[in-house]
Specification:
single chain; alpha+beta; Aminopeptidase; eight-stranded mixed beta sheet; two-stranded antiparallel ribbon; 7 helices; 10 strands; 38% helix; globular
Amino acid sequence: MINARAMKKSNAHLHLEGILPHGGDRQRIASLVERDWSLPAREDHPLGRLQGRALGPARLLVLLGPKNAVGASYFQVFLRLADGRLSGEPLLLGLHNSGRYPAYNWIDVIRYEDSATFAGSEGLDLAADGLGRRLFRLLGQLIPSGGHLMVEYESEGQRSTERMLTLGVPPVATPLGYLFFLSGCGASFRDWYISEGGREGPRKLQGFKPLDAEDARRKAQSMAEELRQFLARAPREEHRQWERLARRLARRVLRRLEASEAAAGQA
């Protein structure tokens, strides 16, 4: 008799034959399935809500992996084009955790690639095409109130954020922090710029989703004041490139915060 685990793997392989017609791509994912990674459906796991979601001309292919020592699940997210070609590397590699209390609900992105390559095509630039915003909004929808999102900023694609944080730019006015803000997980931030004892991995930015309306209001006021102080200070010409980008993002966020405050005052 075939046990449930073997049946699940068999079904996964059949599914891969339907969505990945190219043998090399299919074999890459099939090898992960044999190592107990799975293709979660919406009803199986929160990450299953990302399965098949559109991202520009591609769709997300989500794999759920084993649990770590604290019970969080590893996951990977690839991109799949309409003709079945798979991105050469996963866009995301991370951990997902859920629990009874708000702070127990989080996503920790260990590696984030903001571009994707496919055999025989030019690939996708998520930042240039605006697809990073949609990706982060989809991630943010998985995190309940009071939860948080963490993303590394040491990979090549996050160098601008790394440099700007080093210069003391408010986290929300960095490219990565702005994506957090748009995702709903940027009410406040913590910059893990020191890896304690080397156990936490690369440097990461942590963004929090507000617990409730009052928490959101209080944190929005604090962020708005921080941005006003940042914009009021004299630009540092020796860091002109980063100053221009930071000020542009800061103004965008501040306009949104002020518009929300004005709307709340009229309600």
